[in-house]
Q: What sequence folds into this?
């Protein structure tokens, strides 16, 4: 189960700016239950994004689809057979969902539409891997769908640390170096120049480092309803 909140439309508009054919991907399980990224939210986001981008004079084709679960390969494979021909997919699942899609369909680009707050996905019966620490400010768009915060032992925003050997982390030789994975992913996607960008220090106040968290959705409280 995950809890998250959809990113502000302006941020989503910035992420999808280079693309024309966009698919908003809802997730029919956790994200639907927490009213952040289910079928209804995918349709609403597609509509709102379409209006916003048209106002900016951008010609786009935006569709909305929903998978029952974006965090399990079984459902991703089902989707892969019928997926629309789009330049980019904006996932309304948690960071785990974005990364599962990226791992299973590496030729496609998946952007994070939610700021995930907290969650792993099962690799096989009884084995889960932690891919998202619910930092509250998702940057998977910068790392092409591989999280350096959860998957790098030092949570480095600017990696690698220099200690990895043969693609494995210096902290645990059984663990892939997240930054090695990010480097390979960027190289495969022709986006290696992103490795040169220096990421500024992160504001951790939205993560668990800021203390115990409560998520308040003002738009769901009685008497409100405005979305950012
Ligand atoms: S950057 Fe990583 S830890 Fe933060 S929300 Fe995205 S996947 Fe989760
Ligand atoms: S070896 Fe890779 S995963 Fe391990 S701490 Fe260094 S950069 Fe992070």
A:
């Amino acid at each position: 189960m995950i809890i998250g909140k959809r990113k502000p439309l302006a941020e989503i508009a910035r992420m999808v700016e280079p693309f024309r054919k966009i698919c908003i991907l809802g997730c029919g399980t956790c994200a639907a239950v927490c009213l952040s990224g289910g079928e209804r939210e995918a349709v609403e986001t597609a509509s709102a994004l379409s209006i916003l981008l048209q106002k900016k004079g951008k010609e786009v084709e935006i569709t909305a689809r929903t998978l029952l679960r974006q965090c399990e390969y079984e459902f991703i494979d089902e989707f892969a057979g019928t997926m629309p021909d789009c330049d980019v997919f904006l996932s309304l699942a948690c960071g785990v969902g974005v990364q599962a899609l990226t791992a299973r369909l590496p030729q496609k680009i998946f952007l994070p539409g939610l700021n995930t707050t907290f969650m792993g996905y099962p690799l096989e019966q009884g084995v889960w891997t932690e891919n998202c620490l619910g930092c509250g400010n998702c940057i998977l768009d910068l790392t092409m769908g591989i999280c350096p915060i959860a998957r790098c032992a030092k949570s480095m925003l600017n990696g690698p640390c220099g200690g990895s050997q043969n693609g494995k982390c210096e902290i645990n030789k059984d663990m892939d170096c997240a930054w090695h994975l990010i480097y390979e992913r960027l190289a495969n996607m022709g986006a290696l120049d992103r490795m040169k960008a220096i990421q500024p220090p992160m504001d951790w106040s939205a993560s668990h480092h800021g203390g115990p968290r409560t998520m308040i959705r003002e738009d769901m409280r009685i008497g409100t309803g405005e979305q950012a």
Notes: The mean pLDDT is 91. The chain has seven helices and eight strands. The domain at 1-136 is CATH 3.40.50 (Rossmann fold).
